[in-house]
Specification:
37% of the residues lie in helices and 12% in strands. With 403 residues, it is of the alpha/beta class. The structure holds pyridoxal-5'-phosphate (PLP).
Length: 403
């Protein structure tokens, strides 16, 4: 292997040989023959949408997470919108959320013409800090949307307590956290409403898709109505009873998930336990080997949490490296490791700055973390050799830049 004048292995970014020949993505779906067959069968059936697969998937999903109701949506974002609508958010209301998330978590508050209020995250998990959130509660606050960042459950007990005390709805954004456990209970069975995403990089995919789970029957009814234009009965329901009458009772959307997607979802659900186990195995391998590398800080897991590991974000200790995050990121990409960054804090996006006048420095924990974050490849289909390539590349790049 080519060495530099200081005896370190030459990085691919400087013309050295990359750790692997082809790019390893940070996330990827796994689709097998049974998945394909299930979709083909549905394509040949009478119902491509609003049919029996939707109910079957929702029921199986509710059972799996341990919730009374599950309502499917066409995406995680649509599901979040369903949840903010159902929580009754409207003009003049505020909802508190994390800046360390995908923009959709805050956007769904804006869809209801309510105001997103950010509170900073905890240093260890980068999840919304319940004490910071508590300080942002006003008479206008109607909901809190904690996010299970990277798949590590939020401080749900504290948020539910705040909800109880101030009459707020707790909407958990668990788009990273299907299969995560908090005090031994699965995400989806704890908060007032919990939102999931079935985007291809997630634990279970339907292409695009999402779900809201809840134990509240009224919430479930509103969610179902909202995702179907605000109409109180769906087509199959009408066909069953032989009637034609329906009523639009609220202003909803077409946010329905198709039977084609649900057929895929049912199949994927059957593999979820194995997929989670594989992600946990990969996380354990990463954490064990990176723990002792100077300059690399591995994700912290609180004792009450069993994360689902949608992401594996490391933080760089810049005091121990002679490079910044962008340089380390580029070096890893040149080694053909498809790293990514999650997230640019939402308040720092141009739209939020321009609309709300957010300044840098308002949420220092999230902002400082952002400058140091790199998400490593993490998906259940990773081969042992893929994992070892990531391990080699981190060793190579971190030792090159070690101070
Ligand atoms: C935290 C979070 N919330 C919401 C979403 C939106 O989900 P979807 O892409 O299914 O609309 C995502 C998507 O990745 C996400 O990461």
């Amino acid at each position: 292997m080519p060495l530099t004048s200081t005896g370190r292995e030459q990085l691919a970014v400087d013309g050295g040989t990359p750790v692997r020949k082809t790019l390893l993505p940070y996330g990827r779906q796994s689709i097998d023959e049974a998945d394909i067959q299930a979709v083909v069968e549905t394509l040949k059936s009478d119902w491509l949408t609003t049919g029996p697969k939707v109910e079957e998937f929702e029921q199986a999903f509710a059972n799996w997470v341990g919730a009374r109701h599950a309502v499917s949506f066409s995406s995680g974002t649509a599901a979040l919108h369903g949840a903010t609508f159902t929580a009754g958010l409207g003009p003049g209301d505020e909802a508190i959320t994390s800046p360390m998330t995908f923009a959709a978590t805050a956007n769904c508050i804006l869809y209801q013409n309510a105001t997103p209020v950010f509170a900073d995250v905890s240093f260890d998990t980068l999840n919304l800090d319940s004490q910071q959130a508590a300080q942002k509660i006003t008479t206008r606050t109607k909901a809190i949307l904690p996010v299970d960042y990277a798949g590590h459950p939020a401080e749900l007990d504290s948020f539910l307590e705040l909800g109880e005390k101030h009459g707020l709805t707790i909407i958990e954004d668990a788009c990273h956290a299907l299969g995560a456990e908090y005090r031994g209970q699965r995400a989806g069975s704890i908060a007032h409403m919990t939102v999931f995403s079935f985007h291809p990089v997630k634990h279970l995919t339907t292409g695009e898709g999402g779900m809201v789970t809840t134990n509240n029957v009224k919430f479930a009814e509103t969610l179902r109505c909202f995702r179907n234009h605000g109409i109180d009965r769906d087509a199959r329901d009408r066909q069953k009873t032989g009637g034609w009458f329906y009523e639009m009772t609220l202003l909803g959307f077409n946010y329905r998930l198709t039977d084609i997607a649900c057929a895929l979802g049912i199949q994927q659900l059957g593999k979820l336990e194995a997929n989670l186990a594989r992600r946990r195995e990969i996380a354990a391998r990463y954490s064990a080997t990176f723990r002792d590398i100077p300059g690399v800080i591995t994700p912290y897991v609180r004792p009450e949490a069993n994360p689902a590991w949608h992401l594996y974000p490391i933080r760089l200790d810049l005091s121990r490296l002679s490079a910044n995050r962008t340089e380390v990121f580029r070096a890893l990409r040149a080694e053909n490791i498809g790293v990514n960054v999650h997230y640019i804090p939402v308040h720092q996006h141009l739209y939020y700055r321009e609309r709300f006048g957010f300044q840098d420095g308002e949420y220092p924990v999230a902002e400082v973390a952002y400058e140091r974050l790199i998400s490593l490849p993490m998906f259940h289909g990773m081969e042992v050799s893929d994992v070892e390539d990531v391990v080699s590349a981190i060793h190579k790049v971190a030792s090159y830049y070690a101070r």
